What we know:
With 184 residues, the protein is mainly alpha-helical. 66% of the residues lie in helices and 0% in strands. Helix 3 runs antiparallel to helix 6 (128-155), helix 4 runs antiparallel to helix 5 and helix 5 (90-120) runs antiparallel to helix 6 (128-155). The longest helix is centred in the middle third of the chain and has 31 residues, at 90-120. The radius of gyration is 20 Å and the shape is globular. The model has no long low-confidence stretch (mean pLDDT 88).
Amino acid sequence: xxxxxxxxxxxxxxKWGLEGVKELMNIHPLFTHFPxxxxxxxxxxxxxxxxxxxxxxxxxxxxxxxxxxxxAAVAVWTGIQAANSVPHDExxxxxxxxxxxxxxxxxxLSALLSLWLLVSKSSLPNSKPVFVGxxxxxxxLLLQQVDFGGRLVFFHGVGMGRKSTVQNQTADDTAHHxxxxxxx
Length: 184
């Protein structure tokens, strides 16, 4: 770590602004963490509300579920758009499809729970065990989906590298794989 006197020099040498965004192959990574944080937090707030019998925790759980569902919709949409923008092989394609289907499943389940709350006009429906069980199911599926996404990026390098480098790859590159070649 640099001493305090060197900090202004170090900061002056850093290129500021959203430079990393310019090099993204697609915008999916910009939206993935919102549903993860919000949907898992929703479960946490509901558990706190049930344990401590506090309505404000239930209300917070309700709103984090709503916003997590919106975030999941954006993440799924950008993920589907991103599927053909990154080079990948057969092995990573299978994992991408599992990641995609789990993301869609999480979106559908969170939308159903959100709709249930809207229809019940309550921060917690009468069937508490079923509702909270649905949140647990979302959390489990979401964590598996996150694991697939992390492995795709960090173990297999899908989506890694500079956009300008990937755009220069040839169509004959054996690491490139178009989604149009499969039935889904």
